[in-house]
Amino acid sequence: MTGQAHQQLGPNGPQDASLYKYFAALNNKHGVRQDMEALCKFVRETLFYAMIHDARGSGTNPNDEIMGENGKACQIFVHVFLRDKERIFNTELLESTMEEKENYLKYLWKEGLQTRGRYNIRKALSNEKSAVYAGISESFKSKCVE
């Protein structure tokens, strides 16, 4: 009974009540700040940690959730490269099936995790991370000078 009375706060029923709650939440600066802190903590401690943790792994576990052969990053790589025929340059695969191409791309991913030097995926991620941090740092420096 109280649920029905609560839903009919506005003239348009539950929709007005929902909008009121949404706008009230947006105007609660303290609540927004606390939730933004929780969001940033989640990104730092969960998402970033998962990427770095998996990226630092040996790459031999195909079931690593992100970087492994069956991980999300590999699945995205395979999906993108299978969709665009111009992405695979190996001429041996011109007349191959999708399954053969998929297996080849998974092989490339696995090699990229295990190889040393230029074609190492973790090294490429680390270089990109460093470039992003340098760009952010430079952006803050230029804003402080103005």
CA-based gyration radius = 24 Å
Shape: extended
- C-alpha termini separation: 60 Å
Q: Give the rounded overall mean pLDDT.
A: 75
Largest sheet composition: none
Low-confidence stretches are 1-9
How would you describe what is shown here?
The protein has 146 residues and is an all-alpha fold. The protein has a domain at 1-56. Helix content is 70%, strand content 0%. It contains 6 helices and no strands. α4 (72-83) crosses α5. The longest helix is centred in the first third of the chain and has 28 residues, at 29-56. It is extended and about 65 Å long. The N and C termini lie far apart (60 Å). The model is unreliable at 1-9 (pLDDT under 50).
Give a short overview.
The chain is an all-alpha fold and about 150 residues long. The protein has 6 helices and no strands.
Q: Layout of SSEs?
A:
Layout: H1 2-7, H2 14-27, H3 29-56, H4 72-83, H5 98-114, H6 121-145
Q: Which properties best describe this structure?
A:
single chain; 146 residues; mainly alpha; 6 helices; 70% helix; extended; disordered N terminus
